[in-house]
Specification:
Layout (H helix, E strand, L loop, with lengths): L6 H7 L25 H8 L14 H14 L3 E5 L2 H12 L5 E5 L4 H13 L3 E5 L4 H7 L6 E5 L11 H10 L3 E5 L4 H4 L9 E5 L1 H5 L7 E5 L1 H15 L5 H11 L2 H20 L4 E5 L9 H7 L6 E6 L3 H10 L4 E2 L9 E3 L11 H7 L5 E5 L5 H24 L1
Parallel strand pairs: 2-3, 2-4, 4-5, 5-6, 10-11
Antiparallel strand pairs: 1-7, 6-7, 8-9, 9-12, 11-12
Helix pairs in contact: 1-3, 3-11, 4-5, 4-10, 12-16, 14-16
Length: 402
C-alpha cells in the first residue's frame, strides 16, 4: 500500500495481493514449486536477472504477503519468515557471526537462546559475553571494545526486565555491532525497536501473531542490505522455511492482533493488581505497575504493559506446584501470547537447563510463575487465581493442625 496506514489497518490490509480470481481473503498458495514459461525464463530466474518464484523454500506468494505486512507494521525494510522463533534467532546469529567474532548479549534470555550463546557459538570460535541487561555500566564496559552483534530481549523472558534500547544501540553502533532485539513480549504494537535504534527485530510468530495455539513460525526484520546479502543466502541454503499454510494462518491471526493484545493488556494489568494484594505473593512484576523497578523506562519505550505477569509465591516449589495444580481455568503450558491464559514454572521448564546459579542471578526462583494472560473474562481469571492461592493457605492450615 502506498499510503502509510495506522497499525490496525496494516494488520488487516498490509501486503494484500489478490490473484486473477479477485479473492477477498488472502490466497493460500500451497505449492512446493513453480513453473516457467520457458527454459530461458528459468535460467534468468536463477541468475537473478528477473523476479519469479522458484521454490517455496526460497519464497512463496502467501509468505510474501505476510512478510510485507510485518515489515510495514514494524517499519523495517524487509522481513523474512522461518519455521520457528528459534530458527529466526539461530539464523540471525549464524548468518552474521564467524570465527573470531564477538557477541554481547543480555543475560536475561529465553533458555534456548542462552544455550546457543553459551554452548553452540563457542564450538565455532565465536565469543559470547553476557551482561545484566538493566545495568548500563555493564553494557558500556562490554561495548568499549569491538563487537559484531548485540542480542537482547526487552521485556525479558520471564522476569520482564527492560533494556534501555536507545542507549545500548548507541553504544553498540560505536563498537561496530548490529543490534538484534527479540520483541516477542512487547509485540510490534507496544514497542518498535527499530524506532529506538535497533537494526534487527526477531519474533516467534507462534506467540501473539497467531496467538491461538495453532502454528509455529518465526520472523526476522531488518535493513535491506543485511537481509539480502547476509540473511537470505544463509536461510536459502540451510532451509528453515515456513510452510505456506502456517503463513496463511498467521496472516489471518494478524487481523485480530490489536483487538487481542489490547484486551490481554487490560486483563494482565488487572491480574497484576489483584496478585499484589495477596499475602501468598512475595513479588509481582508488570512493566506498567509503578512498583516495577524499571517502570519509568517501560512507559518511555512501550505503549502498554504487555500480556505477561510474573510473580513469586511465598515458600518454594511445593507451594508453587500446589498453586498451579489447583488452577482450573488457567492451563499449565510453556507457551505464551495465547488467547487462553497459561501458567509456566520457568525453573523446571523453559529455564531449567541454564542451571541454578544462572537462574538465581536472573531472579528466577522456585516460587516464580510466568502467567500469560489471555482473553477470558478477567473476573473469571481472578476467581481462578484466588481459589488456587487459597489452596496454598488451606494446605498450610491442614499441616499446622496435624
Amino acid at each position: 500500500m502506498s499510503k502509510k496506514f495506522r497499525p490496525a489497518t496494516q494488520l488487516v490490509r498490509g501486503g494484500l495481493t489478490r490473484s486473477q480470481h479477485g479473492e477477498t481473503a488472502e490466497a493460500l498458495f500451497l505449492t512446493s514449486g513453480f513453473v516457467y514459461d520457458s527454459a530461458e525464463q528459468a535460467e534468468a530466474t536463477f541468475k537473478n536477472e528477473i523476479e519469479h518464484y522458484q521454490y517455496s523454500r526460497f519464497a512463496n506468494p502467501t509468505l510474501t504477503m505476510l512478510e510485507e505486512r510485518l515489515a510495514a507494521l514494524e517499519g523495517a525494510d524487509l522481513c523474512r519468515l522461518m519455521s520457528t522463533g528459534m530458527a529466526a534467532v539461530h539464523s540471525t546469529l549464524l548468518s552474521t557471526l564467524k570465527t573470531g567474532d564477538r557477541l554481547v548479549a543480555s543475560r536475561a534470555l529465553f533458555g534456548s537462546c542462552h544455550w546457543i550463546i553459551s554452548t553452540l557459538l563457542p564450538r565455532y570460535g565465536i565469543v559470547g559475553e553476557f551482561v545484566d541487561g538493566a545495568d548500563l555500566d555493564q553494557w558500556k564496559a562490554a561495548l568499549s571494545r569491538p563487537a559484531t552483534m548485540v542480542l537482547l530481549e526487552s521485556p525479558s523472558n520471564p522476569m520482564l526486565e527492560l533494556v534501555d534500547l536507545p542507549a545500548v544501540a548507541k553504544l553498540a553502533h560505536a563498537a561496530g555491532a548490529l543490534v538484534a532485539v527479540d520483541n516477542v513480549f512487547a509485540t510490534p504494537l507496544l514497542q518498535r525497536p527499530i524506532d529506538l535504534g535497533a537494526d534487527i527485530v526477531i519474533y516467534s510468530t507462534t506467540k501473539h501473531m497467531d496467538g491461538q495455539g495453532r502454528t509455529l513460525g518465526g520472523a526476522v526484520l531488518g535493513p535491506k542490505q543485511w537481509v539480502t546479502e547476509t540473511l537470505m543466502p544463509f536461510i536459502r541454503n540451510t532451509g528453515p522455511a515456513l510452510s505456506p499454510f502456517n503463513a496463511w494462518v498467521i496472516l489471518k491471526g494478524l487481523e485480530t492482533l490489536k483487538l487481542r493484545v489490547d484486551q490481554m493488556c487490560r486483563n494482565a494489568a488487572a491480574v497484576a493488581d489483584f496478585l499484589s494484594e495477596r499475602a501468598e505473593i512475595a513479588k509481582v512484576l508488570y512493566p506498567f505497575r509503578p512498583d516495577h523497578p524499571q517502570h519509568a523506562l517501560a512507559v518511555k519505550q512501550m505503549s502498554g504493559g504487555g500480556t505477561l505477569v510474573t510473580f513469586d509465591i511465598q515458600g518454594g516449589k511445593e507451594e508453587t506446584f500446589r498453586f498451579m495444580n489447583a488452577l482450573r481455568l488457567v492451563d499449565i503450558s510453556n507457551n505464551l501470547g495465547d488467547s487462553k491464559s497459561l501458567a509456566t514454572h520457568p525453573a523446571t521448564t523453559t529455564h531449567s537447563r541454564i542451571g541454578p546459579e544462572e537462574r538465581a542471578r536472573l531472579g528466577i526462583g522456585d516460587g516464580t510463575v510466568r502467567l500469560s494472560v489471555g482473553l477470558e473474562d478477567v473476573a473469571d481469571l481472578i476467581e481462578d487465581l484466588a481459589e488456587a492461592l487459597d489452596a496454598i493457605g488451606g494446605a498450610a492450615s491442614a499441616r499446622a493442625a496435624e
